[in-house]
Design the sequence.
């Protein structure tokens, strides 16, 4: 290539790492596990930080569900757990909101963004496209440590005097801007914003690296239309991150100024705490525009990786090519593009111009089309398959179910007129917990069960996996399905107790039921936690390709070292979904084996390649 | 030690022993390398469980929906005119949704059960079929278009009512603050006087500008009374943070934004009395709540809404005292040395409402 | 080693990955400033009567300086490619100098603004166009500082002859790209501020 002379120093650099591995050069502990630049270690760091965040996040939800089920009952253990926030064992309303806010923030950003996309983008991108590492290992390391600092700040904010941020995960000003309005908007909110600045930095550093790696470091023969769908999903997710997170940064910057220096970007005409504030000319709606310009793509930043993972897992475990590979890519691109022009559907009843409402309703409901394509393609992939119920497969299938049931209520909420009554009710809560929360969490679980052997060289216990699946699948449906009923009864979101309104009080029994279901699900997660930790150390040693998968990551040694492949990186000869191809002896056909080396069935005439493709000559991708 | 704590101690002890027994059993089995579930075929079990989940789940979903159906007050028995068409649209969308969920899930779980891994079985190599793709692109697109058309029409009708409705409407102002709603009626002149946070002083918590004579007959109420069948123009303000006045039974909701007045038009169509009969609940009241997180007591911003006949409404209104009168009684001599000058009333409110 | 090197040659490069990273970072910076300027426009559209203020004329001079610095930067890159470190050093020094002068210029603009009664936080104003002015220019200024740090490293590398003509000149090329971007960004912000102050 023309620029090969300029780029050669980069080759040398990466090549040197490969060189090190040949001689089993030992790195120090700090370099190997803490400040590692190896994408696999960084992925594990993301995963473990994500799991710890998830424990905190769902513990919060388990606790505040108690309050919703038994608004007047004292639980003495809460006082010993939360101290002054639950005097006499009854949670304070302000702290209830703080818990909801922390639950939302932690689950959306730390678990389902960093924990899901951070883990699997880092882990899978170099392995599945055939690269030694990310384009820049250093930036990748920075990305993790920025995330780590962000998580530490966020968790610290829980323990401060005035409590953590309490304005909901969407931190709408003026509530989030005025410490007079709620105690959590004091130091807690400042820490929240600081934490998010680090998080945004982490997300952008990571995403920049993912895009560059996927576009530039693919192995020979790995054209764009031969990439596994996971890669496409991660690529599009990273593009969404690069385009949307900066806008959140702008929004946060202006909010910082309003809070610390007293500007009035978002504030105007406010009387609070017995005095009129000096702010004039700002608009809280402006913040909502900026926030949701991030916020809506964020939903897909959370969901797309899960969809990518499930595509791969479903295809492998039903031993069939994913149905409509190109349609899947097309619909993901469609979803990604549309996600940028639908943000205001979160704002139909905020006093925004009604004409805008019409436009945004139009775009929003169009998203149903690519989503429908994806759902139907998943189902068709299962048709006449040979379905192996590995735990990963079950979670992937569960994802499809959640994606449909949760997604379908989007047509109600995306409809501006129907959003008037439904906005901020439990109908919304049910909707996004199913389609974004549960579906993405299932993507995360599917990914962990599927790639655990590659990550740790050992298998997870499938039986515990099944138990975990059934607990979670049944549990989540029992939690979120009845929430639609509450929503249709008009029960409002962010409510500390449903006792003050007679129409909400009717749903108190249902609330109790949901709480039981939530605790049921919560308990089920310990099967996963135990299985995960136990299997890292004591699990069965994994075979090289436990799921008989086609993709490149299974061609590495069972525990790949820095540089991934000890010898040459394998080249790629076909797309990754040739499962059960007629004429072949095996029901899979790895990407890296040339046609002439395949094992054909007796009497089957292998097709003569029209134009022999020598991967060494593949210059540039097909885009 | 009393009996109560002894009982609870025994309970925990039993739980502990239970786990201990399970743990030791697992340990023994592990040491002896016995696998009690060796004969169990996970594929068959999970495939069967998937089918079982689908059947039990469907029954449970149908039963629970039927059980809770009468309580779906947000989508049944609308008490306003636009609520009728909204509810109709809701249930239409619901039918489409249920059809989609039922059909896709039936197929999904049937496939899962039917195409379980069997020894010697090979899956069908079936990578794509453009005809199918086109079908499930076009069909949802058409359905969506219909729903969008319906939605746009309704949205337009609600947000931008015709001039006649606007003319005939009565005004009422709802102001949100932490944590209550202030309700203001325009009084005899049928026009709301000017109000802004900068005029707040003492008992004048709403910030009425008494230099504006229109405020002098404004009425502050603790219940929202509305006449049936007459369009209401709700002016919505906030003093501090975002609120969202929600009249659930009327399908009314619009955020209250500090610095940016918003509004909403609707026509109540069922009086409180009639609704009590419909619901069969003599205690029933329409309620107004807040649905935008606004602080600790967000869950408790309740106001009762009373819809009554025009005569009852007029009678109630005439019994209310203008706030200015009350205020003057409390602050005698407030007008001394000050003349109402129309020139003082400047254009205030820096932000324009967008609708 | 040899095998690895051979395998590497099969890469589907378009541009060098580090450069690609830089371009993506620039895109995200564009989104930051795009977000802020559109926020300004949205805020402006919500205000009934926008209050205007005079853009200090000094900004024209600052714009000229930053535009010139782009030329000296590019000159330095060309010289480094030719292996002429001495002239490259002059170009880089000039660029640095103009960057610093620009920063001081911006500082004087702020002084002028404050003297003219246009404060960052002004309770008396009914809109926040002045606040946006400070935010946009200030944020751009911090990026100029980041650019100066990058320039400083390029300066050292040139001084110690660490660039190999035709080969290892990645970091100076990336610095130049970033500097040109900051230049263009400034022109955009300046034009934006000029036009929004004329109703």
Sequence:
């Amino acid at each position: 290539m023309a620029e090969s002379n300029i780029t050669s120093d980069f080759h040398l650099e990466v090549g040197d790492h490969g060189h090190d591995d040949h001689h089993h050069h030992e790195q120090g502990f700090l370099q190997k596990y803490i400040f590692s630049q190896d994408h696999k270690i960084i992925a594990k760091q993301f995963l473990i930080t994500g799991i710890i965040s998830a424990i905190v996040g769902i513990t919060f939800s388990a606790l505040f569900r108690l309050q919703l089920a038994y608004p007047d009952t004292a639980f003495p253990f809460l006082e010993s757990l939360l101290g002054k926030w639950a005097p006499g064992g009854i949670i304070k309303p302000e702290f209830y909101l703080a818990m909801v806010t922390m639950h939302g923030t932690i689950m959306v950003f730390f678990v389902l963004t960093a924990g899901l996309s951070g883990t699997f983008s880092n882990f899978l991108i170099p392995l599945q496209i055939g690269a030694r590492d990310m384009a820049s290992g250093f930036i990748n390391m920075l990305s993790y440590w920025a995330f780590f600092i962000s998580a530490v700040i966020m968790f610290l904010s829980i323990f401060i005097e005035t409590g953590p941020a309490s304005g909901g995960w969407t931190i709408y000003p003026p509530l989030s801007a005025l410490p007079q309005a709620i105690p959590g908007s004091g130091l807690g909110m400042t820490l929240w914003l600081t934490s998010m600045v680090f998080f945004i930095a982490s997300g952008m550093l990571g995403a920049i690296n993912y895009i560059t790696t996927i576009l530039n470091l693919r192995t020979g023969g790995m054209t764009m239309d031969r990439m596994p769908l996971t890669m496409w999903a991660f690529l599009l997710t990273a593009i969404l991150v690069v385009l949307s997170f900066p806008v959140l940064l702008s929004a946060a910057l202006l909010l910082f100024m309003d809070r610390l220096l007293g500007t009035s970007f978002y504030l105007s005409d406010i009387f609070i705490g017995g005095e009129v504030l000096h702010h004039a000319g700002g608009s809280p709606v402006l913040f909502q525009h900026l926030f949701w310009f991030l916020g809506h793509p964020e939903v897909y930043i959370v969901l797309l990786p899960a969809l990518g993972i499930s595509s791969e897992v479903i295809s492998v475990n039903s031993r069939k090519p994913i149905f409509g590979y190109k349609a899947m890519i097309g619909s993901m691109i469609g979803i990604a593009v549309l996600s940028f022009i639908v943000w205001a559907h979160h704002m139909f009843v905020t006093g925004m111009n009604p004409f805008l409402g019409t436009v945004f309703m139009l775009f929003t409901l169009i998203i149903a089309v690519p989503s429908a394509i994806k759902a139907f393609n998943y189902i068709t992939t299962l048709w006449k398959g040979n379905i192996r119920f590995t735990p990963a497969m079950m979670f992937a299938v569960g994802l499809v179910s959640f994606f449909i049931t949760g997604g379908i209520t989007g047509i109600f909420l995306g409809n501006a007129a129907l959003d008037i009554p439904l906005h901020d009710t439990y109908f919304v809560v049910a909707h996004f917990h199913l389609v974004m929360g549960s579906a993405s969490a299932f993507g995360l679980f599917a990914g962990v069960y599927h790639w655990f052997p590659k990550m740790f060289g050992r298998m997870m216990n499938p039986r515990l996996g099944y138990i975990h699946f059934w607990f979670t699948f049944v549990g989540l449906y029992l939690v979120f399905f009845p929430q639609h009923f509450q929503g249709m009864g008009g029960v409002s979101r962010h409510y500390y107790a449903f006792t003050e309104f007679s129409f909400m009080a009717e749903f108190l029994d249902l609330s109790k039921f949901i709480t039981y279901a939530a605790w049921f699900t919560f308990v089920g997660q310990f099967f996963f936690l135990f299985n995960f930790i136990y299997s890292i150390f004591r699990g069965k040693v994994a075979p090289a390709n436990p799921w008989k998968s086609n993709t490149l990551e299974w061609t590495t040694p069972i525990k790949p070292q820095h540089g991934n492949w000890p010898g040459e990186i394998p080249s790629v000869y076909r797309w990754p979904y040739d499962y059960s191809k007629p004429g072949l002896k095996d029901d899979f056909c790895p990407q890296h084996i040339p046609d002439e080396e395949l094992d054909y069935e007796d009497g089957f005439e292998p097709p003569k390649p029209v134009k022999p493709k020598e991967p060494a000559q593949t210059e540039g991708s097909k885009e | 030690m009393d009996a109560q704590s002894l009982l609870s101690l025994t309970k925990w002890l039993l739980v502990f022993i239970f786990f201990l027994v399970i743990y030791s059993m697992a340990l023994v089995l592990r040491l002896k390398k016995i696998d009690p579930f060796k004969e169990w075929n996970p594929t068959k079990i999970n495939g069967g469980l998937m089918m079982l989940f689908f059947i039990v789940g469907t029954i449970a979903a149908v039963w629970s929906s039927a059980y809770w159906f009468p309580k779906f007050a947000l989508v049944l028995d609308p008490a306003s005119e636009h609520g009728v068409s909204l509810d109709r649209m809701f249930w239409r969308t619901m039918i489409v949704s249920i059809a989609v969920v039922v059909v896709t899930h039936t197929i999904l779980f049937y496939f899962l059960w039917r195409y379980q891994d069997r020894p010697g079985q090979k899956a069908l190599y079936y990578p794509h079929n453009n005809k199918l793709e086109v079908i499930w692109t076009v069909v949802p697109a058409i359905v969506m278009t219909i729903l969008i058309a319906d939605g746009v029409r309704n949205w337009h009708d609600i947000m931008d009512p015709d001039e006649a409705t606007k003319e005939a409407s009565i005004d009422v102002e709802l102001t949100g603050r932490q944590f209550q709603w202030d309700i203001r009626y325009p009084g005899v002149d049928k026009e709301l006087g000017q109000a802004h946070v900068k005029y707040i002083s003492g008992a004048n918590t709403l910030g009425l500008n008494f230099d504006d004579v229109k405020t002098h007959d404004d009425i502050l109420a603790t219940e929202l009374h509305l006449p049936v069948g007459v369009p209401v123009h709700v002016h919505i303000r906030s003093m501090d943070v975002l609120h969202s006045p929600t009249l659930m039974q009327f399908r009314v909701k619009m955020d209250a934004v500090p610095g940016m007045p918003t509004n909403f038009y609707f026509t109540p169509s069922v009086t409180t009395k009639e609704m009590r009969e419909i619901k069969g609940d003599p205690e029933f009241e329409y309620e107004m709540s807040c649905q935008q997180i606004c602080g600790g007591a967000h869950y408790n911003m309740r106001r009762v809404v009373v819809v009554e006949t025009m005569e009852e409404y007029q009678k109630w209104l005439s019994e209310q005292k203008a706030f200015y009168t009350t205020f003057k009684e409390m602050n005698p001599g407030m007008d001394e040395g000050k003349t109402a000058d129309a020139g003082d009333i400047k254009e205030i409110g820096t932000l324009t409402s967008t609708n | 080693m040899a095998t690895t090197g051979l395998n590497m040659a099969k890469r589907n490069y378009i541009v060098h990955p580090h450069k690609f990273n830089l371009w993506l970072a620039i895109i995200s910076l564009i989104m930051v400033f795009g977000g802020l300027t559109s926020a300004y426009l949205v805020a402006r559209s919500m205000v009934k009567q926008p209050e205007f203020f005079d853009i200090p004329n000094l900004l024209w001079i600052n714009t000229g300086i930053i535009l010139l610095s782009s030329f000296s930067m590019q000159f330095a890159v060309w010289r480094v490619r030719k292996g002429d470190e001495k002239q490259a050093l002059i170009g880089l020094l000039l660029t640095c100098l103009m960057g610093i002068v620009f920063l001081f210029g911006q500082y004087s603009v702020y002084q002028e603004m404050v003297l003219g009664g246009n404060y960052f936080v002004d309770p008396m104003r009914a809109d926040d166009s002045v606040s946006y002015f400070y935010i946009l220019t200030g944020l751009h200024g911090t990026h100029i500082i980041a650019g100066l740090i990058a320039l400083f490293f390029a300066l050292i590398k040139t001084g110690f002859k660490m660039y190999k003509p035709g080969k290892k000149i990645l970091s100076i090329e990336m610095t130049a790209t970033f500097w040109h971007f900051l230049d263009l960004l400034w022109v955009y912000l300046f034009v934006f501020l000029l036009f929004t102050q004329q109703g």
User: Anything to note?
Assistant: Chain A touches chain C through 73 residues (CB under 8 Å). Chain A has one domain: 37-268+279-538.
